[in-house]
Description:
Largest sheet: 6 strands, parallel
Bound molecules: zinc ion
CATH class of the largest domain: Alpha Beta
Number of helices: 19
Helix content: 25-40%
Shape: elongated
Distance between the termini: 70 Å
Radius of gyration: 28 Å
Number of domains: 3
Number of strands: 17
Amino acid sequence: MDRKRNTYFHYGRAGACLLLAVVGLVWLTGCSLFGSGDETVRDPNADKPQPEIVRYTGEKSKVYPFVYTAKRELSLTFNGMSDDVTMRKLLDELDRYRIRATFFLPGMRVAEEPDVAKEIVARGHEIENNTLNRLDLTKLDYEQVYKEIHLSNEIIQRETGVTPQFVRTKSGDYNDDVRLATAQIGLKGVVSYSLFLHNWQSESEPEKYLYIRKHITRGGIINIDTEEDKALLEAIPMLARAAEDVGYSFVPVSKLVAHGGIRKPLEEIKGYDAIKPNKNYENAKYNLIFSNRETRKKEVALTFDDWGTDYTITKILDILEKYDVKATFFLRANGVEANPNLARAILEAGHDVANHSYSHPVVTTLTPEQLQDDIVKAHQVITEAIQQQPTMLFRPPTGEIDDKTAKIISAIGFPNIALYDVTTFDWDANNSANHIENIIMNQTQNGSVILLHMLDDIHTIEALPSVIEGLEKKGFTLVKMADLIGLNQSGGRKQ
Ligand SMILES: [Zn+2]
């Protein structure tokens, strides 16, 4: 934004009054004159009583840093309104890649250049409220916050015929006043973002692409500021390619929200407290389960450890679905915490989701308290993400465990510790798809538990189709680990 415009929008009181007068909104702004010092031109509304804005006492509006959904969609949003030429080029780029986006527009810019706003609507995009002047609302009193949001909505409605339903501040941050004013005005919520794509530093093109692809998440909300971002137009092809490579599509915010659900708070989910710290672990009993050698059935279990991006995990889900195979996913919960929708997507695809710790420590290196806290936290994060109690199995990171640690883990509610008998070292990117496949084909027996990983940039996805085909050719049925070992829902075992 150039200095002249900056001054005009933020401090040009007379100019702002004039613009607001044009759209008939002077009554709320405290402007009493059309320009300063001209006593002959009086605002016709000046003598009307000023309505008083009282801090709302009802419920705060909803906030959306992302939308709770396991659908393969996310939103591309823009903040601010750059110059006419840039905005039209941006619209052309979006058309080229058939992206329907959401524009959070400042009311004052819409008042100044209504044709750009109308063009955005005409091209099929959504318009929302970026506040009147994009001020730092945390520095304003409640009445000013209210007016910044309310007036912007009024102007956008008058100029474009569209009534915004969502508001976002310039920075994407918000406080209680913003939420209360949003609710008082009757809007559906405050939208922030899951990724604010700021100016690049010195990243190479492949680095930029991978960074963007990592943030293509289910229910995600990507934000770019059209006034600040120097590479705005170049970002569109990259975003389009990343979304296509992950297999997701961009939808406007209102659609994303309409498709989304409400997450229950953790305490309302049955089994959220099934795992609790317990100092009395000395005599706890546990089972280290490597496989089910007793079975006479030709059953084996595929298990996937750790965490990855939507790109990798969705590809694993697609391969499993293609072969109609159900597997068990041991999740690293600090990854789940940052992207809970992906954990939910694994569950919705019919797989079992289980605990692989929060921070992925070697469990034998922690104090009993640290270890229990880490696993309890993981249980809560995973439970909240998938909105139900996970499968009651724990797998220790790196597979390392000893008698004392096993008791500490059992005492909190995990008597069954899930290990494996077939390991391929697929987590090492130096190991090829062929290597992974050969180990599995050579080592798998009746009742085997096969360890794989859902990390990015390894060869597991490449190996997976031939692994499944090879095992089925040998007569194996692929089942969830809980079914293979006869674990019932409450965590006990049948045999
Ligand atoms: Zn691991």
